[in-house]
Each structure stands twice: as structure tokens, then as C-alpha cells.
Amino acid sequence: MNTSSQPFQQSYCFLSCDWGTSSFRLRLMDARSNKVICETKKDIGVKSVFLQSRSSDQGSRDTFFESFLDAQCNQLLDEAGFSDNTITMMLSGMTTSSIGWVEVPYARVPFPLNGA
User: N or C: which end of the chain has fewer CB within 10 A?
Assistant: First the structure.
């Protein structure tokens, strides 16, 4: 849904994707004003996409996640009237978990985490 009535310059926009275990939130943001231009929210988190990819014969998990995200981005950008085909995207949430798109290991910290 488009949440801004103000015109925006595409060169100042980016996509923000918060993909949790049970929900998906994608926003087209204006970096100058920090305002949401357009957004979509779905109850389709990484767990659901992961389970669908395991029971599908449509390719790898990577391909399955990419196809889902690509469809959501195209739909949102079309709704916003965004014509540029290149845009920065930030992904957060569970996309890098063991059931996410690509698992990223935790970083080592230079001190003990138990408070000792």
C-alpha cells in the first residue's frame, strides 16, 4: 500500500526487507526523509518458505527464496510506480538463519559472553 502522498526521487530510494520466522515486511523507503513510500506485509516468513522449498521439486532453496523475494519486490515497485530497475536493498531478520536463504555464522567476540 502506498503510504506517502508526496512525490519521491527514485535515486534516494531503497528497499528494506525484514523477513522474520513467521512474517515478511518489505518497504520502499525514501532515504532523505526516512518515510515509507510503499509497503507490503505478509504472514509468510522464512520458516514457511523453507518448508515449501523442501517439499518442492522447483529447484534449490536458494532459487526458491530468490523467486519469492523477486516477485514481492516487483509487485511493490510496480505499485509505487518505480521505473528504475536497479535499487539498493537491505535484508534483516531470519534470512541468514539456518532455515533462511543463506546461513551466515555468528561472529566471534573478543570477550566471554558469560560475564566472567
Answer: C
| pTM for the whole structure | 0.80
Dist. CA 46–CA 90, nearest whole Å = 16
Chain-centre distance of CA 4, in angstroms?
20
The CATH number of the domain holding residue 89 is 3.30.420.300
Is residue 53 in some structural domain? yes
Domain of residue 36, residue span: 10-93
Q: State how many domains the chain has.
A: 1
Q: What percent of the chain has pLDDT over 90?
A: 62
